[in-house]
Amino acid sequence: MSMRLATWNVNSLKIRLPQLLDWLAAQPVDVVCLQETKLTDDKFPREAIAQAGYDVVFSGQPTYNGVAILTRRDTVGSPADVVIGNPLHADEQRRLISATVAGVRVICAYVPNGQSIDSDKYRYKLEWLDRLIDWLAPQIAQGVPMALAGDYNIAPEDRDVKNPAEWEGQVLVSAPERERFNRLVATGLVDSFRLFEQPEKTFTWWDYRQMAFRRNNGLRIDHVLVTQNLRARVLGCHVERDLRKREQPSDHAPVVVELATAA
DNA sequence: ATGGCCCGTAGAACGGGA
Fold first, then answer.
1. Among this protein's residues, is A151 annotated catalytic?
2. Which nucleotide is nearest to A119 (CA to C1')?
3. Which of A56, A115, A140, A245 could form a cystine bridge with A188, CB 3.0-4.6 A?
């Protein structure tokens, strides 16, 4: 037995809801972490998602950000112990929601983009990641089985970038961001994707411009990190690339992890 | 070519995303 956990930056759930429902109907996953829902809570499509067989918890705001966790009712049940945001970091931006699902602490994260390295938004990004580490590290040290799934807005290594030379020093690949990613890993996490042999040039985001997807000019910036105590249960990890081929796609494709059910 | 596209919210040749 196993359960499948996915993360997907939908870039507006209002626009992407039909694709989300199509995807879940064709290929049901048990847990879905969404980012950039861009919906206030009163506009969240709770009913449509319930009719698809999922419970959902969410935290949104107008125009920007917004996160949600969907759980398949007949396999993993409802999300428990829901926490919105980071208790150590008062933040008006809705970028974090977490819940316990089938014994796993699931953290759904939308890491700030940073815009450019000379921007205030970049400093906010680094600070935000520091506060995330401050919050999660003690829980990881205590042995809480955890999956940190989301849009990290960080390509951890040059092999996660189609054209590293073009990106050198830029936001998404800069050394301080990668240092935060590595520090997060060092608290006791592992990148599910790298537990397996993967096709070269596998990415999760492609710019809408310049036919970037057709040229596979992308970056791998969406990740599912899991605690070491879950490592042996990770059966696979892949990018759901086909969703990026659809009409009116999100610029991100989902990442899906298959996790063996606890013995 | 210091831009190309997509989204929400205005009601803007805009801000933000990445």
1. yes
2. B16
3. A140
> Å between A174 CA and B17 C1'?
18
Our measurement of CA A157 to C1' B4, in angstroms, reads 27
Mean model confidence pLDDT for chain A: 97
Give pLDDT tens digits for A132-171. Answer: 999 999 999 999 999 999 999 999 999 999 999 999 999 9
User: How many angstroms separate the CA of A35 from the C1' of B7?
Assistant: 14
Q: Which member of A54, A55, A110, A122 is catalytic? A: A110
pLDDT higher than threshold 90 for residue A262: no
Closest Cα partner for A153 from A133, A174, A130? Answer: A174
**DSSP for A129-152, written as a single string:** HHHHHHHHHHHHHTT--EEEEEE-
- Enter the tokens of residue A252: 């991100």
Rounded CA-CA distance A250/A170 in Å is: 23
Cα atoms in the 13 Å half-sphere on the side-chain side of A207 = 8
pTM over 0.90: yes
